[in-house]
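Example record

The entry below shows one chain as it appears in the dataset: sequence first, then structure tokens.
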Amino acid sequence: MPPSPEIRITVLGSGTSVGVPTIGCRCKVCLSQDPRDKRLRPSILIRFEGRMVLVDAAPDFRAQALRFGIDRLDAILLTHSHADHVLGLDDVRPFNYMQKEVIPLFGSPQTLNDVRRRFDYIFNGAASQSSRPKLDCRGFDESGFELFGLPFLPVRLSHGDGVAWGFRFGPAAYLTDHSDIPGESMEKLNDLDVLFLDGLRYKPHPTHSTVQRSLGYVERLKPRRTFLTHICHDLGHARAESLLPEHVRLAYDGLEIVVEAG
């Protein structure tokens, strides 16, 4: 039999909403010279079968695209509509120019409604002398959807009092913003090779998971490899990682992970 297609995941940003270093902060992590402590806002790029799928368009997307040599975009998936996950949408315009096509934008109905309000100039159809992104909004539900032959399964997450979405694709799942993972969603996360989880900090937070809470999810789900992301300046990479089990690591900007699609 031919080998299973390869999925390559690149972490474009592993930081929290304000990034690390945090503006004006003089703490040890913000002053760290370890490049793994330099964290842009959270996002990943999924590459498979010659396609590139972006999960979240962070405010740092332009810098991320230049740093990691992103030269095309075939689709964008949004986990939710918070600023640190959508404010880079305007920077997809060069891909429209190069590809001469509209880019599909996937989100829950609520997320897409929020995006249409926030980026009214993109979607209102009014005449404009300025360029604007060309995006085709496509709502999803929990039954999932397929992109270029690869199934994507949305995973509902509690994000404080709100809802965010993770995505399972093949043997990998990316869950970036969650304070809790509901039981019915846990059932979608069995038999994983790679799992990304929110690991904001050690102290409790009303809308994000702690390191210890996420380790509890790891114990229950037993993925082969886990990476914590959406990390704030409370965690210095080297020290925090030294305290984790061997199969749990901190994500960092530029991390690349390969899984087999089959």
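Notes for this example: The helical segments are 61-67, 83-86, 93-99, 109-118, 120-123, 183-186, 211-221, 237-242. The CA atoms of residues 1 and 103 lie 34 Å apart.
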